[in-house]
Amino acid sequence: MADTKKAQDDPSGPGNVKLIGIAGLIKGEQFSITLGQSVVVGRSRDCDICMRDVPAAKAVVEKGGNLEDHFNTVSRKHVQITYLAPNKVEVKDLSSNGTFLDGKRIEGSTIIEDLVLHPHELKLGTIETVCIDWWKLVKRSEIPMVKVKSKAKGDEGAEDEGKKKETGKAKGAAPAKKDDKGKK
Fold first, then answer.
1. How far is CA 156 from CA 94, 101, 150, 160, 161, in A?
2. CA nearest 44: which of 70, 76, 67?
3. What CATH number should be reported for the domain holding residue 83?
4. Three-state DSSP class for 141?
5. Is residue 64, in this structure, part of any structural domain at all?
6. How far apart are CA 63 and CA 137, in angstroms?
7. Are 98 and 125 spatial neighbours (Cβ–Cβ below 8 Å)?
8. Are 114 and 129 in a shared domain?
9. Beta carbons of 22 and 142 less than 8 angstroms apart
10. How many domains does the chain divide into?
11. Do residues 112 and 131 touch, judged by C-beta distance below 8 A?
């Protein structure tokens, strides 16, 4: 419990651990792990992150392919990742095929203590690879808002001052609210 309290008091603030697929069938997929959460990754449907459920794996099956050819070095329950604090993520190897953190085989488990400084590469077996990164959570109210001028319909060159709208600089920002007259 002390680690959780420390993480909340950390000047870097709370965030999520992100797993971003960078090689294999998991490439392009993203998964989020919240503070205090522990997830198991592998090919078993019992896993929190099941490699068989990623869209690329489903596409292989739909085309009549055999997933065992792709996941032959990924164990049913391959790795457990526990987000203890922004500066503390435990990676535990559950496989017989090997789990590699930044190119070095994990024996048992290891703690990542610098995730807020830079991402790490985690390889499951010989192909499936994810980038482990830390993403700071920002309150919507802390996202700076900017005014954007838009052009009126049918008036190609002129800017209509009455058609200003607010948009968030960051992805996922709340849209500008309308008043009771429908104006922003």
1. 62, 55, 10, 10, 14
2. 76
3. 2.60.200.20
4. helix
5. yes
6. 39
7. yes
8. yes
9. no
10. 2
11. no
Cβ within 8 Å of residue 26, ≥6 positions away:
51, 54, 56, 128, 129, 130
State the pairing for strand pair 49-50/38-42. Answer: parallel
What Rg, from alpha-carbon coordinates, does the chain have? 22
pLDDT per residue of the chain (184 residues) written in tens, 0 to 9: 334 333 333 445 568 899 999 999 999 999 999 999 999 999 999 999 999 999 999 999 899 988 888 888 999 999 999 999 878 999 999 998 899 999 999 999 999 999 888 999 999 999 999 999 988 765 556 556 666 666 666 555 544 444 444 444 444 444 444 455 555 5
Tokens coding 37:
């959460």
CB atoms closer than 10 angstroms to residue 97: 14
For residues 140 and 124, what is the distance between their CA atoms, to the nearest angstrom? 35
Beta strands (DSSP E) in the chain are 15-23, 30-33, 38-42, 49-50, 79-85, 88-93, 99-101, 104-105, 109-112, 120-124, 128-136, 145-148, 165-168
